[in-house]
Amino acid sequence: MTFLILSYPERVETFRRIFARDLPEVRFASDLAEVDPAEVRYLMAWTFPEDLATRFGNLELIFSTGAGIDQVVGLDLPPRAQLVRMVEEGLTAMVRDYVVMAVLALHRDLPAYLDQQRQQVWKTRDFVWADQRRVGILGLGELGRATAAALRPFGFPLAGWSRSPRQIDGVTCHHGPEGLRKMLAETDILICLLPLTDETRGILNGGLFAQLPQGAGLVQAGRGDHLDQEALLAALDSGQLSAAVIDVTVPEPLPAGHPLWSHPKVVLTPHIAGHSRPESAAAATVANIRRHLQGQRVTGLVDRSRGY
Length: 308
Ligand code: NDP
Ligand code: OXD
Hints:
2 domains, 12 strands, binds NADPH dihydro-nicotinamide-adenine-dinucleotide phosphate, binds oxalic acid
């Protein structure tokens, strides 16, 4: 029984050390050329070989090194294999911190002040108190909930949107299309922490931006394909949106000269909001394989019919 990980050397070495210590009964491998594919029961990667189904017929669990599984959910999978997304404290903390940083930057008008700085303009903009800045979160999963909990002490009125009804202390929870309309009308800073599925592809579009109060801000930390980039640029130029913090784009990397690079109302980062931390990710993976070996449900199991 083999666990095969395809990743960069630092992650592989950390996993190797933790697996040797905590799960010695499972053989550890990191090189496709050195494994007997029939022995591989557990495979972890970010991008997966196209011939997964034919090559690794005995796979039981396919782990993504990240929280997103949109890169693999459409692949042909071996019959018994289940998909598992990454749920681990290091990744959750990183995304939470990034989004808090972005919300505070938008709340305190940082993109506008950076633009003023470039132009050497010393000018005070209107102040808005945190209890008057309504924050709405698309996606109330692992990352959306952790982000809401971290934003709460600042005093922002918080709302969130999910597919199924949720109850979260201090967060006005909405679900379904009607819930989305209601939340958007009362959101000054919108955060996207959704998975990419057939239902959420292109959700951040001109129609959605028009439902936000004029001058709202956007934090996009989901997937590039959630966002209609042309519609974003149009909404920024018309003033419907005041600013945006964008971590994910189409394509990645964004080509030189793309208008998002230099737009004065955009803060752009190169898909760095979150990264699973090798130590805690290895511990979470060992715990999951143990659960699987004991016939228990693993954490982060993907429902392929929902797409996440
Ligand atoms: P989860 O699966 O834990 O949560 C997903 C949330 O989205 C759930 O609340 C779910 O609703 C909601 N959702 C899914 N589909 C819909 C829909 N059609 N309508 C309304 N709500 C919907 O995922 P995570 O929180 O772990 O991760 C979320 C995403 O964040 C990842 O898939 C990835 O795209 C992105 N990400 C980006 C990173 C970056 O570096 N930029 C890093 C890590 C993740 P329900 O509660 O009803 O199931
Ligand atoms: C993830 C990511 O999904 O890094 O974890 O985007």
